[in-house]
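Hey, can you fold this?
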Amino acid sequence: MKLLFISIRDVNRKTSGGEKCTNRNYLSFCDLLGKENVEVVNILDIQETGMLNTAIKRFGFLQGYYVGLSVSIKNRILEKAYGFDYVFIDASYLGILAWHLKKSGYKGKIISFFHNVEVSVMRQKARLNPFHAWKIVSVRYNEKMAVHHSDRIVVLTSRDKEELERIYHTNRAEIIPISLPDEYMPAEHGMTSYPPVFLFVGDNWFPNIHGIRWFIENVLDNADIRMQIAGRNMEHLRDKFAHPKAEFMGFVDDLPKAIAEADYFLSPVFRGGGMKVKICEALMHGKHIIATSEAFEGYEIDPMEVGARCNTAGEFITAIERLGREPRRKFNVKSREYYLRNYSFGATLELFRKLLQ
């Protein structure tokens, strides 16, 4: 059996949460079918450039095409798809491809993957910046096409499944939570320091920026900690959110090392959708995690066993005082156990196998 994997990302790149999820999806199919039977089409790699093609792409928005997709690229994908038993569409805003595949007579199975319910995320963006409002129509159209013309629909969380039912009136979605290949390196774990180091990991996506701003403005002055912020392009926030207790590290070459060396993992995120991949990484490395309900969304864990769930400034301050009152081992056994049982690469592989049945 052969699978055509359609993406807007480099399937081997892992510098953001979305990229790591795409990489997990790709590696799962490679494991099940053999790498030689999985071919990737990265739309951003094959999109046309130049002024004329830019104008054509803008016109394509009116036809329902999004994020670099165009009539010519769609036609190339349709032609290629006939040689494959499965087409996996790794973005719900490429849902128009599902419709065109069905319309063209494609007889294989179409699987659409929702990293988020993108129309809900786009509405959040539009509330912050009205410029994004025009994108809602295109995203909603593509997700509707994905829902109605895919043979299988995959989401990360039960919340996203409920969102699809509410918005697009389907209950067919299957849940495959985030999982990651194991990058944990066993080591001698020391005790937490004082003041403890709380590490935030994430790129400059709007929920991360909002969360950092909120935490600095509402918590940091009242918490005896050092805060580290690691992630692609996050160093650009250094001047905007300057604080003597906050260190903006930017992109970190050895992220597992940075996570291991931190005393606690911090995720004060209130917006977004899907699952927060960084929580999975923190579980993998056995960290104590202090995070919001939104950050823990989709994870079947007891927050008190891995750290604390906080949604207000007072709750964060109280949890930080409780956890940082006296030294404890940096390694949280329960976090690691949750990862191995539910969110390791092998834990979700059987769910991907079922997609191919």
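Oh, and this one too while you're at it.
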Amino acid sequence: MAWSSTWPDGSQSVKANQPTGAANTTYIETHMNKDHFWNISGDKDGHHQFVQMTQQGTPAAPTDAALATAMDGAIFVKAKSTTEAVDSQDAQPFFINNKVVGTPGNTQVMQLLGIRAMGVFDRKTSNGAITLQYSHNCTVARTGTGVYKVTFSSALPSDNYLVLGKCIKYDSDPEQTADFFMSGGTSLTLKNVNNFTFRTNSLGASPTGVDPLQTWFMVFGG
């Protein structure tokens, strides 16, 4: 149902204005309920279900939002520039605020850098089988002693992402540690938009692959 901006119509009677007024009320409820709680209940009314926004500027020329008068912070979306991310100018969330309290116009911008994927898994048995305790946007498979492949449920925009990880060595000696590192190669075959492979080694004079007691990793960017 369409919205009528010429309401009430002063040239018509109250009765004649009623259908248009009812239609406008229905329009408001229909469209506000898309992302707000509107006329639902006293506890929910006036709250957001989610927020949608268009990017600032264009992908070719992303810009930062400007703070309105008397405002101290704002969340907005803009594309990554070619300088920041050569392969992927996708839309990302940012936050702008007053750098100095009480000094409008002196602002700073920070990216709300979300986690693309993450996981925590435990060594299940002595043969290296694992139990995935928690994951986001990925699955994990052991392909050899101390060798693990992470497959993204949804592909990343590019292979230029950051992986951080660590592990706890399976050992009765609390001083024993293990190392988490990405598999090497002459190309990014083992680190791509669909998956990556990492290894866990026992530290020492002769590093060898080990299956840790617990391992965790996080993936940012891309």
